[in-house]
Amino acid sequence: MLDQGQITQATANILMRSVDEAMDLVSSRPLCDWNSLQSSVYFPSYYRFLSASMLPQSFITYFTVQRLESGCYICATFLRAHRIARRQLQNFLGDSEIAKIVIDESNAGGEEARKFLEEVRCTFPQLLCVLKTRQVTYAVLTHLSENVQNLWKTGLLEEKEMAHLDDAWQTDLKKLKRNPQLVKMPRVGDLLGTHPLVGMLPAAVRAPLLSNKKEKVKGHGAALYMEGSRATGIWIVSIGAVKWRSQRLSSRHSLHPIFPHGSTLGLYEVLTGKSCLCDMITDSLVRCFFIEAEKIDQLRRSDPSVEAFLWQESAAVIAKLLIPRVFEKMTMQETRLLVSTGSTMNLYTKGEDIMLEHNYIGILLEGTLKAENQNSILPPGVLLPSNMDLELLGLESSAMNRMDSCYAADSYQVEAQARVLIFEVGRLFTEANGQRNQPGGSFSAEALQLSVEESTGEEQVIITVDSPNKLPLGDSSAGSSSGVTRGS
């Protein structure tokens, strides 16, 4: 790989040193060449200090990308070398017990390398573009040189012509080595502009909000906030994925408890003043922005339509937390569609009765309700009619009994002013799928897909970045039939 120009001399030295160190221990320990590479692959210990310091973000990003770039080369080379070695070992020893043990040790050693590359695929796809471009360019130029040599040997080119073309190729190769393509990170303005929360706000309120943002880069496994802690602000996830877990909300009912890029986390807690509902832990390298709760309070007071939009945005996250088996089948874009155009958000005053029709459900966002033979219902919670078919929600009767966030009753009496989001379960999937295929919908999106495929054809990863259009801010109650009857 060094001769082919796929890795640098420095990377080759690091890899060979790890092999030498593992060879010294092979008689007493399993394969351990990866242990020597970990310090060269993972982020340096001082990076957390840099991310919290007052240094310019471009300066911090430069060092981060330098480490990521080197780590990608090391991991890719490590995996390829082990793949070749496993193939050669199996050809030599066959399906013997010794070969099986060594191959298992080799596969186990490559898990961390695969995990690192997967994080980079999800968070910095542009970095992989640069690495692939360099390797492909080198391979093309090398192949061109070989073709020129063959043409000269067959007599189709004279020696002077061959030398002239070879000089041109060598010049291009030197340019590639001396001035490789630079890694261009997405600009902060571009990241925020394509985020649904920021991109859909009026320009008059957007600028003051963004002037107080704090950019953060979190490594895998870092906590954005923990269940029960005080909400100090919101997290705008621009790149990466975040995993949630909760004792109260029973995340075991979720098959894929992941919030992808484009999510707004902590907004509901800021709007209601409640403590954090769950743990939010990064599931990859995450580039995000933090906005203090005080700025969100100022934003919601600026315009009633802005406040209604903030409630809609927060409801999209709450729906995924409370009814994961239904909403995890939908993307965040589809969930926002359902909340904004396929549901109604109603306000109820004290003393009113809420009676849900068959196959309509509600999500209590704020206020206090009372149902027959039940204690006071506090938000957030799922409100079901007593004759609700629980299979539509992916629940059984026994499962609902264990969830203290789901309630079933013929009617609910309002004890304190309540805000309830109501939608029809039967239309949930049909509306989402219909809007997804509608080219001129109010929340259409363009997808940028990047396919990264190894030359062996063994793996393929598709990275999709949604770029949503702006949504008009309007009455939050506009939408489908409410499916609810008021009483007093």
UniProtKB/TrEMBL annotation:
The keyword Ribonucleoprotein does not apply. Residues 465-488 are annotated as: Disordered. One of its GO terms (biological process) is sodium ion import across plasma membrane. Residues 477-488 have a biased composition (Polar residues). It comes from the Eukaryota. InterPro entries: Cation/H_exchanger_CPA1, cNMP-bd_dom_sf, RmlC-like_jellyroll. Keywords: Ion transport, Potassium, Potassium transport, Transport. One of its GO terms (molecular function) is potassium:proton antiporter activity. One of its GO terms (cellular component) is chloroplast envelope. SUPFAM superfamilies: cAMP-binding domain-like. This is Cyclic nucleotide-binding domain-containing protein. It comes from Triticum urartu (Red wild einkorn).
